[in-house]
Amino acid sequence: MNILHVISSPRSESYSIRLGNGIIEKLQMANPGSTVQVRNVAIHPFPHLEEVHIQSFHTSPESRTPKQRMAVQHSDMVIRELQAADTIVIGAPLYNFGIPSTLKAWIDHVVRARVTFRYTASGMEGLLTGKKVYLAVSSGGIYSEGPWADKDFVVPYLKAVLAGIGLTNVTVLRVEGTSMPGVQDQALSKALSCISL
Ligand SMILES: Cc1cc2nc3c(=O)[nH]c(=O)nc-3n(C[C@H](O)[C@H](O)[C@H](O)COP(=O)(O)O)c2cc1C
Questions:
Q1: Which of 96, 174, 180, 183 to mutate to test the pocket of ligand 1 (most atoms within 8 A of CB)?
Q2: Residue limits of the Flavodoxin-like fold domain (predicted)?
């Protein structure tokens, strides 16, 4: 099994990274010999899309200018990583009710017409099929239930955008309440105990 671990927390003590690592440990126990590729978008952020990136996406490889060829390299690289992976673990801290902008920038390089999805008469058809995704979502508050449940835009957004490129087999694991006294101490062990593959 080839596992891709996408990390987007910049914190060394990150809950989402530790939860992602917990998922990967279990995957490796169940699939000895698995490889792990780490893509840390917090340490190596992807550029926000500029005109040259969008032009490069819409230009055939043989017609790209040297600038466009440079610009498309980030996207080609991350798409190759996704294509090579059987299982993708995405760490997503909740930032201001959404995902970190670094993870959004990665997504903007991954979701590419004619490469990871195509338009058909019935809409968007994802081209990255047959892969398993685990989301390791961390949040200071609690969103799986209670008064803030309808404020979680992270899981619905990630599920929608991943489905658009064919990644429909998604399991969500949450380490939540990481800022809440009385909850934070047990938050990680509770999340780790919920991992079932
Ligand atoms: C910039 C920033 C924005 C945040 N926004 C929210 C938020 O909207 N809701 C929430 O529950 N927690 C929020 N938090 C808390 C984080 O979700 C929490 O600390 C989480 O554990 C961070 O993930 P990490 O431990 O993987 O770094 C925010 C934290 C930061 C640094």
A1: 96
A2: 1-192
| Pairing mode, strands 117-120 and 123-126 | antiparallel
User: Does 8 count as an annotated binding residue?
Assistant: no
Mean pLDDT, the chain, whole residue set = 97
Residues framing ligand 1 (Cβ under 6 A): 9, 11, 14-17, 93-97, 138-141, 178-179
Instruction: Note the pLDDT tens digit of each residue in 54-75.
Output: 999 999 999 999 999 999 999 9
Q: Where are the domains of the chain?
A: 2-193
16 is in an annotated binding site: yes
Sign for the CA dihedral angle at 136, 137, 142, 147 comes to: negative
21: number of CA atoms within 13 Å, CB side?
Answer: 10
Q: How far apart are CA 25 and CA 50, in angstroms?
A: 38
The pTM for the full model equals: 0.97
Q: Is 15 within any annotated ligand binding site?
A: yes
Pick the CATH number of 2-193 from 3.30.70.890, 3.40.50.1260, 3.40.50.300, 3.40.50.360: 3.40.50.360
Average pLDDT over residues 100-123: 97
> Stretch 130-157: mean pLDDT, rounded?
97
Res 196: pLDDT: 87
